[in-house]
């Protein structure tokens, strides 16, 4: 290649240098094909131990990204053309150059698999956000699909629930504004299925950088999540064994989420979200026990004498006060049905987006109701201090 077009090639590489830093967690490989006459000479680059390892012409050498680019440019002087393919999760950047010119293309990087007729029949009534075919790797890893890519009979409902969660979080992300990167904290993460699916969706569908932190108190689920992240090659995730009441984030948090954390574990997630000044909080509460044993409302005792009504009213008080207090801390709050109550009665999602420092009217209403009902919710206790 002539010096003029090698100089143009260098300009494209300069842009890639910055990207290689920002998107380091998403890097997959580089493929280089030099051509001289009819002969092709192929090199492959992988990232190992913070070094770019190039295998080319029978030799393997380690480089920094800057030195790798310098080497590739120097080698280009010896060939008629170059085809440089930079692959990261969700995107492939293709740079092609010869003595006539240099051009760059940004390509989709989805490995779409064929969908069998049974799976197609089961999913035909919904336009999925996380689609079978394109998202097969992550759907297989979390057990929705078999190794052959067929949807499991007993996982169709779970797949629908997960996809609906992604739909609701997608709307939340759009309400956060035009952010290039999203950091999500998954509280009481368990097996982290939602984090893995959202990781796929945000990076490979929305084309945004993202980082996930999963917190749980179980060694087993933390190790399981780490293994799944390794299997998928998802380097933009960390999983930490920690009490939610003691965890202090080391980076700014955009979204705190929690799905079906039992009883006051949901309050721990809410408290952590407010303490860490998360821009958005989304929780789907599970069982409610705390307020059931606390509240008194003598005026409706003739109704509450029935245990099922007393329990349901406790659920309503618990999530109502959580929503109201979240408003008091400056969040715009909405409460929606996450999934059909036919699937599970624990189907409410509380979503909040931070809009102001506080809402005095909502705080006053919260404290008045708290006094009226004689309750002392855990959420409030976890906002101002870390529990010892």
TrEMBL record:
Residues 157-292 form the Methyltransferase domain. GO terms for cellular component: cytoplasm. InterPro entries: Methyltranfer_dom, SAM-dependent_MTases_sf. Gene3D superfamilies: Vaccinia Virus protein VP39. It comes from the Bacteria. This is Methyltransferase domain-containing protein.
């Amino acid at each position: 290649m002539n010096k003029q077009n090698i100089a143009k090639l260098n300009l494209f590489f300069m842009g890639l240098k910055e990207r290689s830093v920002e998107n380091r967690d998403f890097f997959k490989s580089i493929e280089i094909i030099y051509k001289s006459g009819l002969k092709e000479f192929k090199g492959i680059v992988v990232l190992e131990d913070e070094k770019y390892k190039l295998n080319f012409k029978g030799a393997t050498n380690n480089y920094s990204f800057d030195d790798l680019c310098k080497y590739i440019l120097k080698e280009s002087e010896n060939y008629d053309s170059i085809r440089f393919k930079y692959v990261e999760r969700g995107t492939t950047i293709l740079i092609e150059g010869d003595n006539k010119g240099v051009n760059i293309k940004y390509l989709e990087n989805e490995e779409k698999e064929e969908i069998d007729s049974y799976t197609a029949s089961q999913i035909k009534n919904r336009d999925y956000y996380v689609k079978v075919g394109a998202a097969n790797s992550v759907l297989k890893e979390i057990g929705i699909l078999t190794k052959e890519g067929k949807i499991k009979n007993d996982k169709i409902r779970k797949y629908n629930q997960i996809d609906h969660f992604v739909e609701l979080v997608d709307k939340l992300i759009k309400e956060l504004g035009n952010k290039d990167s999203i950091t999500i904290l998954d509280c009481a993460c368990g097996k982290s299925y939602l984090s893995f699916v959202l990781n796929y969706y945000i990076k490979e569908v929305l084309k945004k950088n993202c980082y996930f932190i999963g917190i749980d108190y179980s060694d087993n689920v933390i190790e399981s999540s780490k293994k799944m992240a390794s299997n998928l090659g998802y380097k933009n995730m960390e999983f930490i064994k920690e009490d939610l009441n003691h965890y202090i984030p080391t980076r700014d948090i955009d979204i705190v989420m929690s799905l079906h954390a039992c009883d006051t574990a949901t309050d721990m997630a809410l408290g952590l979200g407010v303490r860490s000044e998360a821009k958005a909080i989304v929780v789907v509460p599970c069982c409610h026990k705390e307020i059931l044993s606390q509240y008194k409302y003598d005026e409706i005792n003739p109704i509450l004498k029935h245990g099922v009504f007393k329990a349901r009213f406790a659920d309503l008080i618990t999530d109502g006060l959580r929503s109201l207090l979240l408003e008091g801390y400056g969040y715009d709050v909405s409460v929606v049905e996450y999934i059909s109550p036919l699937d599970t009665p624990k189907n409410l999602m509380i979503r909040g987006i931070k809009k102001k420092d506080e809402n005095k009217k909502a705080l006053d209403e919260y404290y008045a109701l708290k006094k009226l009902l004689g309750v002392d919710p855990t959420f409030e206790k976890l906002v101002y201090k870390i529990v010892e």
